[in-house]
Specification:
globular, EC 6.3.3.1, 2 domains, 352 residues, alpha+beta, 60s Ribosomal Protein L30, Chain: A, 32% helix, ATP binding, PurM-like_N, ligase
Length: 352
């Protein structure tokens, strides 16, 4: 043989991986909670759950990824915010049942480890964990040169949370007369990007340009990170209790009606009035280039990233609490008896 076989020559650079860990270490350590045992670099993340703090704790878990929004991040060579999207997708699913996010582990698969890029991604994950109050207790960066192109990567994460057994939120608590409070999204969040990217390409839209109706370049709008609602939702439960805050629905793939329907019990329907908010300009732009309204409302959140079903007597106070925390919120609808052939959630009226 002219030269020995090496792992690096086969497409796995251990030294680059170790440099990436060094670059991300301080960001990860900033997410630590008092319950975290040990530090970055162990074979497993350890978390000391204080069982004396709870009467009957249930552990909740959620796994998700970012999806094809990553392709847009690669296209623009901007990787600092997709980690926030990753965290949002899992912790806001956890809080939908009333669970407090405790810790998260990430998985980064890539064709080639570029330490600075991996560090930027994981720093974004750490930022998201801080926004959610969760610790980043570990993860994995895997270099898969035989499976992925050099600049390709994908992200996934699992988060674990805790909720008291008698405080689990969901359709069992929702009742006729409940008010549906909508919480504004920050943009497209992390859903619908296969459709978004196809429309952008087919219409020849310039990601560096600012189309009419938008206040910044299209690329900036599309890469806006997902709003993380976890601590805001938990604040509502802490302030008003589960007798008033009955359910949360995280608006992801399937749209506003599809996800709201998941927290509505048989016999009832959530009726949401479009006239209580404006359709985001970026969604309108895609509709101008061929996306039908019905498809927009199935693929995108259309301006609402989370909804809460709450007792009507606390509606104004809930909106006030969310607004004071920097989350635009409004009463968007009510829970009513469901017609025999009706859907569990429907949108009525026209956007203002």
């Amino acid at each position: 043989m002219s030269q020995p076989f090496t792992y690096a020559a086969s497409g796995v650079d251990i030294d680059a991986g170790e440099r990436a860990v060094t670059l991300m270490r301080s960001a990860v350590e900033r997410t630590n909670r008092p319950e975290v045992v040990g530090g970055l670099g162990g074979f497993a993340g350890l978390f000391a759950l204080d069982t004396a703090k709870y009467r009957a704790p249930l552990l909740a878990s959620s796994t998700d990824g970012v999806g094809t929004k990553i392709a847009l991040a690669r296209q623009l060579d901007r990787h600092e915010t997709v980690g926030i999207d990753l965290v949002a997708m899992v912790v806001d699913d956890l809080v939908a049942c009333g669970a407090e996010p405790l810790f998260l582990q990430d998985y980064v698969a890539c064709g080639r480890v570029v330490p600075e890029r991996i560090a930027a991604i994981v720093t974004g994950i750490a930022t998201g964990c801080t926004l959610a109050g969760a610790a980043l207790v570990g993860g994995e960066t895997a270099e898969h040169g035989d499976l992925m192109a050099p600049d390709d990567y994908d992200l996934a994460a699992t988060a674990v949370g805790v909720v008291e057994a008698d405080a689990v939120l969901g359709p069992e608590r929702v009742r006729e007369g409940d008010v549906v409070v909508a919480m504004a999204s920050s943009g497209f969040h992390s859903n619908g990007y296969s459709l978004v990217r196809r429309v952008v390409a087919a219409a020849g839209l310039d990601l560096a340009a600012t189309p009419a109706g938008l206040d910044r370049p299209l690329g900036d709008v599309l890469l806006e990170p997902t709003r993380i609602y976890a601590l805001d939702c938990l604040a509502l439960v802490a302030e008003f209790g589960v007798d008033a805050v009955h359910a949360f629905a995280h608006i992801t793939g399937g749209g506003l009606a599809g996800n709201t329907a998941r927290v509505v019990p048989d016999g009832l329907a959530a009726v949401l009035d479009r006239s209580t908010w404006a359709l985001p300009a970026a969604v309108g732009l895609l509709e101008e280039h061929g996306v039908p309204r019905a498809e927009s409302e199935r693929a995108f959140n259309c301006g609402v990233g989370m909804v809460a079903a709450i007792a009507p007597d606390v509606a104004d106070a809930v909106v006030g609490t969310l607004s004071s925390r920097g989350v635009p919120a409004w009463v968007a609808g009510t829970v009513r008896p469901r017609p025999a052939e009706g859907a569990a959630a429907e949108l009525v009226g026209d956007y203002r």
